[in-house]
Specification:
It is a single chain. This protein has 369 residues and is an alpha/beta fold. The protein has two domains: 173 residues, Rossmann fold (3-Layer(aba) Sandwich); 187 residues, Rossmann fold. It has eleven helices and 15 strands. The strands form three sheets. The protein has a six-stranded mixed β-sheet with strand order 5-4-3-6-7-8, sandwiched between helices. Strands 12-13-11-14-15 form a five-stranded parallel β-sheet, with helices on both faces. The chain has a four-stranded antiparallel β-sheet with strand order 1-2-10-9. The longest helix has 24 residues. The protein starts with a strand and ends with a helix.
């Protein structure tokens, strides 16, 4: 998944799918025009990649020119089509094939038909790489179609979102369900914090560490912080309801986030159910629970090395480290079962270069759809 401006886009069409469609179009058009020299007219800006690859696939004499029209701002059509670069000269008596990147509402096509109907061309036909049949009004014939696609916003391969994304070799689709909510598990030393930092940047997520949230509320003397402190002073566990309310505050403070990474909560099946109920009240859900898995011996060595630099006493005693692992296993087992029943539990190999691990996590997230 990629982020352009404030929107997330997920993979939709691979480069080889696009090139196969272009080869097919070139072959079809060649059957109709190989005995003459047609003029291909690309529609800028979106069709520049399409025109380039189409001409490589069209192995017969031809000429090429461009027109430039505009009707889009952001994700939607303005409904007003402007002509920014007019039709080419010297097309009298020539066969014209208009090369469009995408046809949706048909407004731009209407303007193209208007432009070329005023010329003395022998004929003109329309070839569109992408065709959104559900959105098209059907007013004019589309003679050649590469790929018929649903009426969703796409970027890449010349198409843009506010001018970003044109240079992508593949096509991405707007992720309509932008919200991605993750629960991240990992034994001490598994790199959970490091990976959360990368994921929040890549997917525009808010990383909510329960420990950090507790410390913030207590340090700043919030109502929830005072309430949590009152239980802690008595040696009692802080009720799940208090923790959930802290998380709720964090979620509501970040309306711009495309989702959340919950780190350190839930710790029990009851807390997982409470989190599900809270998210459901916001018309949200946990999309995936991801556990960073690593061999205990490797993690022990990693933590002992970290302890030399950090000075943390709990990272300098192998016995204490292994006790923390045992505690993690005991707490995580029922949570693993809880999320497995929902089909949301994923294990990811947490050993390797940081970029490799991020890539593995990204594959899980991108597959969520």
């Amino acid at each position: 998944m990629i982020k352009l401006h404030d929107k997330m886009f997920r993979p939709y069409l691979r480069e080889n799918q696009i090139l196969e469609a272009i080869d097919k179009m070139a072959s079809q058009i060649a059957d109709d025009y190989k005995d003459e020299i047609p003029v291909f007219v690309g529609v800028l800006n979106g069709a520049f990649m399409f025109v380039s690859d189409f001409l490589k696939a069209y192995q017969h004499p031809c000429e090429v020119s461009f027109v430039k029209l505009s009707s889009y701002q952001g994700l939607t059509s303005t409904g007003i089509v402007e002509t920014l670069l007019d039709v080419p000269e010297n097309i009298q008596g020539r066969s014209i094939i208009i090369l469009e990147d995408v046809i949706d509402t048909g407004r731009t096509l209407k303007q193209l038909v208007h432009l070329f109907s005023q010329t003395n061309a022998k004929e003109f036909k329309v070839a569109s790489l992408f065709y959104k049949s559900d959105a098209y009004n059907g007013e004019y014939a589309i003679d050649y179609v590469g790929l018929e696609i649903p009426d969703t916003f796409i970027v890449g391969y010349g198409l843009d979102y506010n001018e970003l994304g044109r240079n992508l070799r593949e096509v991405y689709q707007l992720n309509q369900s932008n919200m991605i909510n993750l629960v991240l598990f990992g034994k001490p030393g598994a790199g959970k914090g490091t990976q959360a930092g990368f994921l929040k940047e890549k997917y525009n997520l808010k990383h909510i560490s329960t420990g950090d949230v507790f410390r913030y509320n207590i340090k700043n003397g919030t109502e929830l912080g005072k309430l949590a402190q009152s239980y802690m002073d008595k040696g009692d566990l802080v009720p799940d309801e208090v923790t959930i309310n802290m998380l709720k505050d964090e979620v509501e403070k970040n309306p711009e986030a495309a989702g959340f990474i919950f780190d350190g909560f839930p710790r029990t099946a009851a807390q997982a159910e409470a989190l599900d109920n809270f998210l459901a009240s916001k018309d949200m859900e946990v999309n995936a629970t991801i556990a960073l898995e690593a061999d205990d011996d490797i993690l022990v060595n990693r933590l002992l090395e970290r302890g030399k630099e950090s000075g943390r006493p709990d990272d300098q005693d192998e016995g204490k480290i292994r006790n923390r692992f045992d505690e993690y296993n005991q707490k995580t087992a029922p949570l693993k079962e809880y999320y497995q029943k929902q089909g949301k539990f994923h294990s990811v190999n947490g050993i390797g270069e940081i970029e490799e691990i991020t890539g593995r996590l990204g594959k899980v997230i991108d597959a969520l759809g």
